[in-house]
TrEMBL record:
Keywords: Copper, Metal-binding, Oxidoreductase. This is Tyrosinase copper-binding domain-containing protein. InterPro entries: Di-copper_centre_dom_sf (IPR008922), Polyphenol_oxidase_cen (IPR022739), Tyrosinase/Hemocyanin (IPR050316), Tyrosinase_Cu-bd (IPR002227). It comes from Cannabis sativa (Hemp). Its cofactor is Cu(2+). Residues 62-73 form the Tyrosinase copper-binding domain. PROSITE patterns: TYROSINASE_2. The keyword Metal-binding applies. Belongs to the tyrosinase family. GO terms for molecular function: catechol oxidase activity; metal ion binding. Gene3D superfamilies: Di-copper center containing domain from catechol oxidase (1.10.1280.10). Pfam families: PPO1_DWL, Tyrosinase.
Amino acid sequence: MVENGKNAHLFLGSLYRAGDEAEPGPGSYLESLPHGPINLWTDESTQPNFENMGDFYFAARDPIFFFHHSNIDRLWSVWETLGGSRTVFTDPDWLDTDILFYNEYALLVRVKIRDCLDTRKLGMRIEKLPCGPEISEFAGSFVNVPHKQMDGKKTKTTCVRSE
């Protein structure tokens, strides 16, 4: 999934501007799987509107929210290190888009997308481990969960582990 996105558009999705067609769809490998479906699979049937992580006002109340989105950040970090001809967004209209939210003190915070692209600036350190099919394996069908598994004489680990 991560390797299939040769440019930021395929990994994160396409730009969406005022006047574009409504409901353009996920537009990326990451949004299609695993990000979007896991948000929707966490619906809360005890709530009157069946809220889930796809509902912005309700999302962070779900215990899996922070684990899930930390993994999305980890996948972005992996994508950035794959090398090759991968290209990132350079469009200032996208990079300078403001995201508004309230912090834990109920104060309005304004952040630009460009300020969120480097996980180190967000206070995250993602450990790099040797990677490749001969030394690693993934748990689950499409969600990478850190784990170790003994395979006879050889120990296999995930490619990247976040702290």
